[in-house]
Amino acid sequence: MTEAVPAAAQPVRRAIGALRRLPEFLTIWIPLLLSAGHLVSFALWTIWVSFTPSTLVPVSGWVGLRNYTAVLATRNWQIAFDNLLVFGSGFVLLSLSTGLLLAILLDQRIRGENVLRSIFLYPLAVSFVVTGTVWSWLLNPGIGIQKLVNGLGWTSFRFDWLIDGDLAIWTIVIAAVWQSSGFAMALFLAGLRSVDADLVKAAQIDGAGPLRMYRRVILPTLWPITVTVIVIQLQFAITTFDLVRALTGGGPGIATQLPALVVYDFMFQRGLLARGAAAAVLMLLILLAVLLPYAAWRYFQRRQSAHA
Amino acid sequence: MLAGAAGLLTAPGVARAQAMKPRLTVISQWSAGSDGAAITALGKKFEEKGGMWQHSPVPGFTTEMMNKLRAQIMAGDPPACSQLKGPEIAAWSKIAATVNLDGLVAAAGYEKVVAPDLARLHKPGGKWISLPLQIYSTNMLFLSKRAMDKAKADKIPVTWTEFNALAEQMKAGGVAYPIANGGTRPDDGQKFEAALAGISPAAYRTAIMNLDEKALKGPEVKAAFAQVRRIADWMDPNTAAQHYSINLRRFVAGDMGMMIQGGWAQGVLLNAGFKLDDFIIAPGPSDNTKPVFLLNADAFIFWQRKEPDLQAGQTLMAQLVMDPAIQTMYSQITGSIPVRTDVDLSGAGWSDGQRRTAAALKEAVDTNQAVLSLAHNMAQENGITAAMIDVLTEYVKNKSITPDQAVARLSSAVEGAR
Fold first, then answer.
1. Which of B73, B303, B393 to mutate to test the interface with A (most CBs of A within 10 A)?
2. Can you tell me the distance from the alpha carbon of A200 to that of A214, in angstroms, rounded to the nearest whole number?
3. Taking the domain B140-294+364-417, which CATH number applies?
4. How far is A139 from chain B (nearest CA, A)?
5. Do A222 and A272 reside in the same domain of the chain?
6. A223-239 and A75-106 are packed helices; what angle lies between their axes, rounded to 10 degrees?
7. Do the beta carbons of residue B297 and residue B191 sit within 8 Å?
8. How far apart are CA B7 and CA A154, in angstroms?
């Protein structure tokens, strides 16, 4: 009889435990399911629309790959894709190296580190539209940096990338690097601070100078962070929209088109929903090309550490 | 029988509807400047007639207003009335029910006083569902008085040859940039349409309005691209993607000489505090010396609503839009000319430029030289227009593209967008 009491109480206790965990269950799973459902359902809907003959509003019907071939054949998309390669690689490499350099400099136990860190991180708090607008004035040769330098006496100075179709894409790289190298810096700084002190000491005892120490000991420990930063920056690069809208408007001419602008342009400016959807799906494929290898790498890494 | 049944159904509601205040929900892109002032004045008139005016402006390009319209239509809640124009009226009338305005138009005798090309755009399928409100020409030539003084010139150029000569004269006289411009897509498109229509209105009609492949690759189109290159060389390259209105001060000051812009620039200039003596307005260059009129007309389309107060509001709005006094009031604020061809523009409140524009329209209609603007979405639906403007804007900005290449790109862009 005495044993029966805990046996009967067990389900009750379990129920109370579940009840206690209910709030966290609700706060995590419901938003997660809702947002996943939201994301997946709209992605599926966009994929469906990309195979229909929709124009002003979505309609049903099947046109096969016609929207895709049409989008791929437009000059807009071709320019946007080339720009994505230039912008993506230029932006990621530059923001990565700027961020790393800032992080290493800040890591020298300097005075006023907090102030400097805030300053470098601050651009992240500014919206891309503001960044784009400010840089569009700064980079405008008639009123910005070029005018200033010319006014100071160096009259042959030229900095007119904004109006040069071949170089205009680099103005977007400049603005984007300004905006987000602080983010890379913050992640790298955290990485630098978590390097095993024993490792550093051991290297010091072995007589490694600062340059050698960074190259051989500290930086190699940072590579998981580097991969994370690259992936985050790349997915930002692929979806960039507002920065370009505010900075160049896709111009001069159509020289600084990016895929997201093409999607918006087709869907909302031209009233060609299905073509816009096809362009959006192409963007998704580019994103997957970045994210899937990353996911595979993470999976592989976790398995390795589990085995070790 | 259907009408009878509808009558029976609404009969008890009539008394209530009469007591009801006519109400109108409107969306348009006109929020600020002379456009905003004009539609606010129209709203005041609507309220004076006992109506309730609910205007939700969506600032920016027309396409942004369209996005709101699309969202409302898809939600089953279209505005009672919205701005819409050109071939988009026919396209959009397929996705939602519109109001048949034939009765109101007939009662006002409106059809007789609207240019036939324009009327056609507003009655797709033969029924009036939208009403044009005001007309602009997109190829008006604005001359800065101070730049003319610098060039020691006083003759308004009529042909492109004279125009080019004047630009050179201005340049020699110390005008930094003989052409004032912005860097937006419509700006670039306008330069091309003004060039082609001025070289040959007939070629413009076949190539741009009818998209005839042979005409698109014809010598006139190539000549137009060559003229656009000359214009581009006289522009300030630093305008990037700026709006043309940013340069108005430099234009008036004589730092920039000429502007090929829509008639609306008059309203914008006056609204910015400049005087009519600061500039001259004339029809855009035309090689056959007779005025060419690139038509751009703003219009309202009326969407079907069940609510009796909204329906009463639509009737009141339609009557107001067709009223010559209202059109006079509206055009005097914005700088456009009235849609009605029977409005007298001799009185005070009209500028010489507007009188010249109205006279040009009359003459252009008579000589079949009134054509529909491409850059302002009157000639083609947005999809084809945007594909063509891509080529035009790239050509204006990238000086390494030759006229021959541009001709080939324009026709292949049309091919791709169809």
1. B393
2. 9
3. 3.40.190.10
4. 10
5. yes
6. 150
7. no
8. 81
The token pair at B19 is 């007591």
Residue B18 is predicted with a pLDDT of: 52
**Measured between alpha carbons, how far is B14 from A104 in angstroms, rounded to an integer?**
80
Average pLDDT (A48-72) is 92
Chain B hits for A74, Cβ within 8 Å: 387, 416
- The rounded radius of gyration (Å) of the Cα atoms in chain B is 22
Angstrom distance (rounded) from CA A135 to CA B241: 13
Chain mean pLDDT for chain A: 89
A129 touching chain B per CB within 8 A: no
What is the spatial distance between Cα B18 and Cα B9, in angstroms, rounded to a whole number? 16
Full domain range(s) for residue A24: 1-49
Tell whether the model's pLDDT for residue B7 goes beyond 50.
no
Two tokens, residue A39: 């994301």
State how far the Cα of A69 lies from the Cα of A62, in Å rounded to an integer: 14
pLDDT in tens, B198-214: 999 999 999 999 999 99
Question: Predicted confidence band at B267 (pLDDT cuts at 50, 70, 90)?
Answer: confident
Q: Is the ipTM of this complex over 0.90?
A: no
Same domain? For A274 and A222 the reply is yes
Would you state the structure tokens that stand for residue A297, as one six-digit string? 């790498």
Q: Cβ of B240 and A163 within 8 Å?
A: yes
d(CA B18, CA B22): 9
Question: Is the Cβ pair B383, A271 closer than 8 Å?
Answer: yes
Q: A299-304 long-range contacts, Cβ below 8 Å, gap at least 24? A: A301/A224
**Entry pTM:** 0.83
Read off the pLDDT of residues B344-374 as tens digits, 9 standing for 90 and up. Answer: 999 888 988 899 899 999 899 889 899 999 9
Kindly report the nearest CA distance between residue A14 and chain B, in angstroms: 47
Taking one residue from A and the other from B, the number of pairs with CB-CB distance under 8 angstroms is 89
pLDDT digit string (tens) for B63-121? 889 989 999 999 999 999 999 999 999 999 999 999 999 999 999 999 998 888 889 99
Q: In this complex, is the C-beta atom of A140 within 8 Å of any C-beta atom belonging to chain B?
A: yes
Q: β-strands B177-180, B337-338: how paired? A: unpaired
Q: A67: which strand partners?
A: none
CA–CA gap between residue B4 and residue B58 (Å, rounded): 40
Is B20-134+297-338 CATH 3.30.565.10?
no
| Domain shared by A135 and A32, yes or no | no
